Amino acid sequence: MSETANRMSGRECNIPPMPTHVPFSISPLGSIYNASRITNEDNMSNSLVRLLLISNSTLHGSGYLDHAEGEIRDFLAGVRQVLFVPYALRDRDGYAAKVAERLAGMGFRVSSVHQAPDPRAEVETAEAIFIGGGNTFRLLKALYDNDLLDPIRRRAQEGSLRYMGASAGSNVACPTIRTTNDMPIVEPPSLRALGLVPFQINPHYIDPDPNSTLMAETREERLLQFLEENETPVVALREGAMLRVEGGRVMLKGVAAARIFRRGQPPRELVPGARLEL
Amino acid sequence: MSETANRMSGRECNIPPMPTHVPFSISPLGSIYNASRITNEDNMSNSLVRLLLISNSTLHGSGYLDHAEGEIRDFLAGVRQVLFVPYALRDRDGYAAKVAERLAGMGFRVSSVHQAPDPRAEVETAEAIFIGGGNTFRLLKALYDNDLLDPIRRRAQEGSLRYMGASAGSNVACPTIRTTNDMPIVEPPSLRALGLVPFQINPHYIDPDPNSTLMAETREERLLQFLEENETPVVALREGAMLRVEGGRVMLKGVAAARIFRRGQPPRELVPGARLEL
Question: Do B8 and A187 lie within an 8 Å CB cutoff?
Fold first, then answer.
């Protein structure tokens, strides 16, 4: 732990400064620097944050965002325009066009941050932001390159920006991207992310396949390895699952259960409709 | 590309200096900084390097290293003692004991680098090194923390240290660990690795499953995403496959085919016994 902390503080030359506005009683960033224990008392003590964190944008057998449409409409009620972040995929124009068409079908206008002359200014005035899935390393690197982490974090924590993420977009809402499934195809200056929740998400969670002959680690084994090195709990979202965070409460939504991993405890299941007690 | 290069050069404060001894006509590190194109002429022009890079240490239905035993015995012929690197797993003592017992059965004595008072000195005098599998990020971070990358690289390039790696241990022989399958549970100061070969390895390669309902990227999709951001070719080793590098030649060994990914070209297959022409 202290090795990690030292190494990270030694890299400050490329890590943006700590945000000054940190309404959590324990900063979610504290869990990166100190691997702080998260207690019940610290769980989403900021009641202003509004998040919809989706495991996967497409569920097998249905179209893009279909399985989440009801929840998205409810979460974005009253919003007219959504700022889209396409950085996780290479084809930003194509991705933005696809999302604009899909959200138009729900009555929302979409602008894409990659087409804005001043991306930071877009973030400063948006009502809602949607960060799409793809490669989490590519996404986080682009968020750093465009200096967007601080304004997104600050406005989400102030309660003036509703935040919706899918897959990689849900990973970057967490303290770090250390529980992504993605390949590190590019190197962001840090694995530190937005820290809007005091836990890690593992999207696309898949249970061990008893018939598999592959000898690589199962997802559960990978998350237990994460807990060997980190104290932050992990919410593993199976495909079809999503988290809604509002009023200081974290609720599991969608059609699939989640699996909760904490150091020193056996994993436990959380069913849709249940509140997450960390 | 240039974004990546700039970002990485901007992080020099925490990256060890470039090695001074680089016998490749294109430095393997060059492929990180510049994403240089690798041509046939540059393929393992250093004929001194001797490597055995294994996809997986255990093959389904057999015991630890069983499927590689014949190749290991041949590769290590004449070696009496092997230096083991257990950093990829948390339980270093248990890992070292397991490997010592297994290699003793092949007639090799084993010392583990984590039990040495001076790990660098061990590397400087070893005849052969074996870097075991586990989590690639944890392994690479420990190699940085113990300042072992430079001496391993230099001695392997001089031809005085035979290098054997399995899974994560094969990943770190490559220019970077950007083609690992592992979760980034800790943060090394850089993804740059040993660069003993001018290509990337993806171990535990698995073909797309036509019956899968999981919507996460297939391995092939992940490697194509890597090639969107990097020019270095990728040798994807299915379980049972391994590469033997000697006399400037790269040969596929083992019982499974490999799949070769190059930017702008369709993936192609390489069968055991064939020479890799990059």
Answer: yes
